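Dear colleague,

As promised, here are the two records you asked about, laid out in our usual form so they can be pasted straight into your sheet.

NAME FIELD: protein one
SEQUENCE, THEN STRUCTURE:
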Amino acid sequence: MSSAPETDDVAAAPAAPVPPVAPVVGFDLDMTLVDSSDGIAATLIAVLAEAGVTVTAADTRPYAGMPLELILAGLAPGTPASAVEALAARYRGLYPVLGVDSVRAYPGAAAALAAPAAHGGRSVVVSAKHAPNVHRVLAVSGLAGSVAAADVTGDLFAEAKGVRLAELGATAYVGDHPGDVRAARVAGAVAVAVTTGAHDAPALRAAGADVVLAGLEDFPAWLTTHVADLRRGERGTPVPR
């Protein structure tokens, strides 16, 4: 006489819950987190004066956010590459003396850096500035405690920033320059632009920014939308611009 198949009286264990996706937000430094324009201009003026080139602070403004060598080559056209490298080395040596103390954090910068942690994530800083000076600027501006030292990277621009952001798992990158938009694209992150630098909202939109904010005060509210997108399985849907 056959018997009914045995049944397993032990209920199947419930599937482990999928942890929520945490935001990892990269931030540019100069003209995004901090207004460093006066110190950069003062150092450029001093370095170029030593080389016999006269520039004004206004001359330096359009170069905000660019790599130092490109700035120096633009302000002193015709300078041989080797001389540009020497000027850049001199700039990096003078900047801690002439440039750092005038740096000020933008309104909302500390809150913006702290915002990802409230959603289980973290902030990282990826900048074109020379790495030791990035740390100096963060300290002087009162922002050093808002980001881990290991999450601070310098000496990178545009696509090279994007490679580092991808390594850090960035889901968004905040910057003021078209090069920052390109960085976000390389990283597969949402490109968030702020208009605190040399480029206005139309220029940043034309560069391909997904989101344009007037300043970092608007960032925590946008981040809430970004986190909701991440938890729906989307990398990030831009909010209306």
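NAME FIELD: protein two
SEQUENCE, THEN STRUCTURE:
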Amino acid sequence: MNHDKTPTGHLAAFITILIWGTTFISTKVLLETFSPVEILFIRFVMGYLALWLVCPRTLKLDSRRQEPLFMAAGLCGITMYYLLENIALTFTLASNVGVIISIAPFFTAILSCLFLGGTRPGRQFFIGFLLAMAGIFLLSFGSSSLSINPMGDILAVAAAIIWAVYSTLTKKISALGYGTIQTTRRTFFYGLIFMIPALALMDFNVSLSQVTSPLNLCNLLFLGLGASALCFVTWNLAVKILGSVRTSVYIYMVPVITTVSSALVLKEPVTMTAVCGIALTLAGLFLSERPSMHQRPDRAGTVH
């Protein structure tokens, strides 16, 4: 790993999570007019077009055998993850989904060991994981009762696993040496292609007036240009520099940012339970993210 680029990797991961943690506000507004799959398709079309404008050069692969990596990344990170998450939200509480999705770094660590040649994460990674889960649990359920819904919770677990697969695929793609913007755009392309059957099944029906409404357009631009085009590039850049495991632990911060932004934007009260939850989550993040001294770089040159 190039240590000179490590701060850049952390900054890219933090920017990504900072934006992803606030997207719920835009999504909440748009759900009054659009269905989840309509929002999903529009934001990634916008993101795909934006990446073309930023980098109009066509990506030429060295080998056709590399194409399945991009297809799998698009299927997992764009289509399946968001569809599973959105469907899970129709069955169970958003707080349940938020906690369950946050276990993605655990699965990422396992997949890194199996497919990237990484060593098994040390004790501090798992202690950090437990601390972060305790903090996220306090943030999510501190003011509400725990509600178990097998179908919704199983779908959320599946989404977390799928995101771990995407992060692992992203690391393999970054090892190919292509530009981050071009590889992200190619992933978006396959994600949109795989999304088409879902559009047909879920009754996609969007009018121009819906999209051009000032409030809707501003929120769609935020999701399309910020949360999709920018964030997937910065996330993939972070994975390229830090590795899939160290980048994935930043997911722990999403509930923290959501809580803080809710207080700032929606004026929701922050309880002492939430403050304790934020402290535990951040402690878990820093402990899990920090590589152990005994760990060695994996085959891709990334410390885990």
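A couple of things worth noting about protein two: Residues 293-304 have pLDDT under 50 and may be disordered. The chain has one domain: 3-289.

Best,
R.
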